Amino acid sequence: MHERRLLLRRLGLLPALAGLPLLGSAAWRSGHDSSPEPGAEALPDDVCIVAPPLAWQPGSSLPLLAARPIPAQARCPVCGMFPARQPRWAAQLIFADGRAHFLDSPLSLFLYLQRVERYAPGYHRADVAALYVSDYQAGSWLDARQAFYIAGSALHGPMRGGNLPAVASQAAAQQLVLEVGGQPLRYAELRQALPEALQRLAPHRH
User: Fold this and answer.
1) Which of 81, 85, 105, 168 could form a Cys-Cys staple with 89, CB 3.0–4.6 A?
2) Are 129 and 95 in contact, with CB atoms under 8 Å apart?
């Protein structure tokens, strides 16, 4: 319990979660006993309580499924980082009801898509209506399905490991490869199978 409270304090969540019956649930699977504490409400296995999807704001001037600015308080549901702090790496996923998750990198987006139900309980892959990644060079939002990704480059993403910087065109991808190395890949290839070196970076420990 002491270790869990230290983790929550580091994430800035302890005050927000004080008194809630979540701390003893299976949501925290980092080597601790996952049995609920006496009187605690049992939760499904592998539930991420760090980053719930954020609702669309009806008063916004943006369409329901349009790419939206990253809220400063948004956390990546895969790793717990703040995507707004490194916007050139960021990604976002929007469900058909307008709720959205913001991710720290395209790599986290592809890891998320492997297990949507884990990171957004109650949602499924079929509920995903829009996917966006930040153009690493221009900083604008790209349709994730149309972007080009560089795997195995010398660039280190927010998690300090190898990553998948995204660019808008094949020409931009080839230029970036000349500068930092790596191999250009498309969305369909990465959805089918992430490179093994990137799979090992999955921070599935919360």
Assistant:
1) 105
2) yes
